[in-house]
Amino acid sequence: MSFQSNLQRMLIDHTTDLLLLVDEEGRILFASPSSEAFIGESPASLENKPYNYGVFEGDVLLLRKSWESACEGNRPITLQYRYNQQDGGILWVESVINPVRLNGDAFYSVMTIRNISEQRRIEGELARMAYYDPLTGLPNRRLFQDRYHQALLSAKRYERRIALLYLDLDDFKSINDTYGHNIGDQLLKITASRLINSLRDPDTVCRLGGDEFIVLLQQFEANSDIEKIARRMIDSLSQLIYIQSYEITIGCSIGAAIYPDDSQNGETLMQMADSAMYMSKKCGKNCFQLYH
After folding, report:
1. What is the CATH number of domain 133-290?
2. In this protein, which residues make up the domain named PAS (predicted)?
């Protein structure tokens, strides 16, 4: 064997990418040793198996169409898909399908497959940081604005009503001052959990910042339904909270405004709900107020 052949063999044996040589019928003729890490199969066991062997079921059609397109168009195609792993996990990969002709008319495709799971994980974390509050895990202002915009479009199209509820914790600053910010953060996490458990599946609760939250209601029949949901949140939050060795009680003030009853303008509706919340605070702790 020549030096060049030895070098090529060494490169194939030591690459961390998975290399597959596939015939025109889609059967694997050769797999690099890295197949163990990608599919949990030895190169020999992959021979004559289909090129999509081990691929996550939901991605099989995408890979098949891409492979056929690359072969028919005689051009390389790059795509991302997932592999099933033997431990039940999922491996994200990026694959380049490169059609080649050898020995005259013999047609093959070379698939170079790279593990991008860590890259996808980081991208997912960055996306979550962009749209979710890191402390409570609730949707943040940015995601709320997107959902609110879609809700307004849907309400206008189908002539439905939606309601915004502004919620502000009562005397939260004094809790931070008395127990410290770490306890305050724990209380905000518990608050978020109790709010989620007080709402229905179609409803959305977001943290705007600090001790301010906003709830988007898209399914209700009467104004009394809004009040019932608000009272349920107030009752839940008023239950005694145990954090470390402390017993803490917290109240909240809630104000609501309704589309299209109060306004058909999204920004104005938010201002009205905020105003109703401040009217609620003037009435004392644990109060709810509809805008009027």
Report:
1. 3.30.70.270
2. 4-49
